[in-house]
Write a structure and sequence with these properties.
minor pseudopilin epsh fold; three-stranded antiparallel beta sheet; 8 helices; mainly alpha; binds manganese (II) ion; 50% helix; Helix Hairpins; 2 domains
Length: 217
Amino acid sequence: MININSKIAQFELPYLPYSTSDLEPYISEATMEVHYNKHHRGYVAKLIQALEDSKYEDWPLVELLARASLLGDKIRNNAGGHFNHTLFWSILSPEPIKPYGKLLNQIEAAFESYESFQEQFARKAMSHFGSGWAWLIIDSDGILQLTTTANQDNPLMDVAEQKGYPLFGLDLWEHAYYLDYQNNKADYIDAFWNVLDWTEVSKRHQDALLNIASKIT
Ligand code: MN
């Protein structure tokens, strides 16, 4: 399991808790190899290099995201790229658990049903133009929201139009799906549900609820 808050995950390529072929046929080994070993590794290397040339070297990753507007494009893009991909690997699994418990209840309350939630998420992701990410977030009032961000931005950044704590994100860059689905983004989004693991998503939901409660009381 990847703990993105742990020190080791701050500025290192995280250990992948499955092999690059394990998500087939939904995400191919070829895609995983280039995506994890080339793209993500590149974001980490460029982030470290950009931080070395800056006065933000000691800032934790979440702090870099929260103040992304201050940092210039190189740190913003690579800090986002590192965080987003670390989160992405952690919510995927070859043996995914279906949605359950409190989070499923909240999804059904907010989106009528799990199926309707999936449709609305797909519509949101399809309507995003160009590179970016589609997200399920929980906002500071504890409300579930669907949103997208451009490039490697994310909802933790001060620059995000809709801010919140990401429960999961789907990579909408062509590098995430082009080898497997070419221009059929809708098929890629459909396939994603087969490898999305709600264990990790539910843990993040639980953490967010505790965090929101501690701020209110
Ligand atoms: Mn990517």
